[in-house]
Amino acid sequence: MGNSFDSLESVESYLSDPRWDNIKRDYDANGISSLRSPFQVVNTISEEGSKSLLNLLQRDDCWVSGLGAATTQQAVQMFNLSYEIIYISGWQVAAESNNGENTYPDLSLYPSDSTPNFINKINNTLVRKISEHKEGILPPIVADAESGFGGVYSVFNLTSQFIKAGVSGLHFEDQLASEKKCGHMGGKVVIPTHEYIKKLNSARLSSDVLGSPVVLIARTDALHASLITSDFDDDDREFLSNKRTSDGYFSIKDNHGLAIKKALRYAEYADVIWCETNTPDLGFAKEFADEIRKVFPDKILAYNCSPSFNWVGKFSENEIKEFQKNLFELGYKLQFVSLAGFHSLASSMYELAKNYKGGDMSAIVSLQEKEIQLSEEGYTAIKHQQEVGGNYYETIGEVLLGEESELLSTKDSTESDQF
């Protein structure tokens, strides 16, 4: 009989995997063992997806590119196009797919379990689709855990919720959770380096306890933060002024230096490093990458090609075409467009509503013509019943009721007759 999941031998075997080479933990196998149950409650989507994501990120010939999904159906369309990953932005969860009673700006106002629940819904939908068609690969989901919605206990629990929902990659930012802002808003307050490292340890400990090797992404917002909570940390102090604000925080005088110093400290603990920026600046991207890879030559970097940047007119056609390739050559192997889903959703509905306003059905005809054209390229959502699982539940009906039952839904369906 093998060792129980919580045995020291099992934990040490887990930690001896080459996967953990060059990853630091400020706790040991005994700590993990003390928190594990005797048996593993496996989430194979998270466990296998985490391994798949890391394999993708360790390729030398290509970067991993993703779009942020604001709805489950947007994730389905990415799956249909064989996207390698799906990115879930906390901003978009706040704006569209949260469990609360309203839509929100990116201020951590929504219930903290919203993103795990959203991921669970996406994974359930994609698993059903794979079951129905007997084809397709479940793409790893990389998700935004904000600032953890609190301290180390909140981070531990939140990470556990994400893993149980099937997440593969997870990022935490070094902002003060109670004052958290979108990375592209003002008023950001970062926390001392040692405090954030405790959060990274908490997230890693949670994944170790569950035995799911989640790809942990450390994000610093120090490049464009004005404030920090304390000058206590020796790693931070040289980059701060002596000035304290009326809110009691300390002003930052050297953002570049602080962002790089923090990232270098985080790199010991995280699989991937990300510095949030306010502009698509290849110059700073190179400076940052050079400093990180001087110390950690194999460290994977991430870059947010955010729609918060105004990309229009800033680059030539060739420069914009080569932008992500240039980032990749600097070491940025994880690249995504965080708010793609929101802007696609809002702009497409606005355009349709504008054209239809007053009851002009030609707008609907134009929409269907576009869908028919896209169907020739692999688009399937023109058959909307089918797209949301209609055929899967029809199969359930056939199994239980028989194929000749008059209760089956597709026999007289307009979708079957007209599309």
Can you characterise this structure?
With 419 residues, this protein is α/β, with parallel strands linked by helices. The chain is 46% helix and 12% strand. It has helices at residues 8-15, 29-35, 44-57, 72-80, 90-97, 114-133, 152-165, 193-210, 234-237, 255-266, 282-295, 317-329, 340-356, 362-375, 384-387, 390-401, 414-418; strands at 64-67, 86-88, 141-144, 169-173, 189-190, 215-220, 227-228, 240-244, 250-252, 272-275, 300-304, 332-337. β11 (300-304), α12 and β12 form a beta-alpha-beta unit. The protein is globular.
Ends distance: 57 Å
**What's the arrangement of strands in the largest beta sheet?**
1-12-11-10-6-4-3-2
What's the total number of strands? Answer: 12
**H/E series, N to C?**
HHHEHEHHEHEEHEEHEEHEHEHEHHHHH
Radius of gyration: 23 Å
Envelope shape = globular
Q: Regions with pLDDT < 50 over 5+ consecutive residues?
A: none
Protein traits:
about 425 residues, alpha/beta, 8-stranded parallel β-sheet, about 10% strand
Quick rundown:
This protein is α/β, with parallel strands linked by helices and 419 residues long. It has helices at 8-15, 29-35, 44-57, 72-80, 90-97, 114-133, 152-165, 193-210, 234-237, 255-266, 282-295, 317-329, 340-356, 362-375, 384-387, 390-401, 414-418, and strands at 64-67, 86-88, 141-144, 169-173, 189-190, 215-220, 227-228, 240-244, 250-252, 272-275, 300-304, 332-337.
